[in-house]
Amino acid sequence: MENTSAPQDSSSPTLETTIPSTPGAADTFAPRTDLSQLSRYAEAIRRELAKVIVGQQALAELLLTAILADGHVLLEGVPGVAKTLTAKLLARTLAVPFSRLQFTPDLMPSDVLGTAIFRPAQGDFEFRPGPIFASVVLIDEINRAPAKTQSALFEVMEERQVTQDGTRYPVPAPFVVLATQNPVEQEGTYRLPEAQLDRFLFKLTVGYPTVEEEVAILQGHHAGFGGTPLQAVQAVITAEDLRLLREQVRRQHVEPKLLEYIARLVGQTRAHKGLYLGASPRASLALLNGAKALAALRGRDFVTPEDVQYLAPMVLRHRIQLTPEREMEGQTADDIVKQILQQIEVPR
Question: Is the pLDDT reported for residue 52 higher than 60?
């Protein structure tokens, strides 16, 4: 287990609190919120990640979206596609405490949350926080721990606190869980409970690089290192800066008809004949918050239907379950989400 804090880069930009401007008659399309600082921070993080990671621009954008939306991320992919490396690098760009956990079948809840230690001199117990008490927590192979350990994450992922012996201990802010799992190797793994999956904002699938990207990886390795040392990736944003950026994201403009569109999309998962488990209202909130953050990253202070459609598979794929008949036909959760998107009328 690691428990380190990423160094802060003194050259990092300083976030200035901005007052949303009101559109005037001469400039009807003036932005209500100045997103220039957010864009500079996002670009700085992308540059730091690109020092080591080749390609994966879409993955980097979605991870930044989750960070701005204050959500957890489940990364799924075969071994060797840089799931863990990407999560570690993202954590290094944030000047906040970082912790890494390797989940195994013998891991106990106290190994994650912490435990009470008896102090003979004082005659009482002292709570010793576990590795979950960090701002960015990387959980490697999360599906290798049994149900008892998985359930230990329920409270902290949702409420950002740990209750031990009747006392509540808040985790640092911000608090983000980045978890990885391998979809191929199933021996020695446990299926994640639905209640836990529902607490992840996104489930992202990490695929293989293109031929050109793999050639670039080989060239970097052949040049003498195989990339850039992790120490070359610097922190570019503080916890306070991130808090202010999240406030900007929460102020994003959303039309009432888009709220209804999100509700109809999620509601259709509960009525679709190919599904026996639909998405919960938490999925609607995830879709809304994610769309706000994505719009901000793309330089807009308002959400569009395209933002919602783009994020729908990442938000819904781990929250729905197909009927056995559809699984036998070879359909996937993404196929069902695509069908639902085609069925619901898009607001204009």
Answer: yes
C-alpha 217/C-alpha 155 separation (Å) is 40
Question: If we measure between CA atoms, which residue out of 109, 84, 81 comes closest to residue 98?
Answer: 84
Nearest CA to 140 out of 127, 129, 151, 131 is that of 131
Contact 303/258 with Cβ under 8 angstroms?
yes
- Contact assessment for residue 74 and residue 319, using Cβ atoms and an 8 Å cutoff: no
284: left (phi over 0), alpha (psi -120 to 50) or beta: alpha
CB 6 within 8 A of CB 45: no
pLDDT in tens, 294-325: 999 999 999 999 999 999 999 999 999 999 99
| pLDDT value, residue 224 | 62
State the pTM of this model.
0.84
Reported as a single tens digit per residue, the pLDDT across 82-119 is 888 888 889 999 999 999 999 999 999 999 999 888 88
- Alpha-carbon separation of residue 289 from 53, 106, 130, 292, 312 (angstroms): 27, 36, 29, 5, 12
Q: Which residue has the tokens 């921070």?
A: 41
Helix (H, G, I), strand (E, B) or coil at 275: strand
As a whole number of angstroms, the distance between CA 159 and CA 147 comes to 19
Compute the CA torsion angle 243, 96, 45, 22 (nearest 10 deg): 10
DSSP conformation class of 104: -
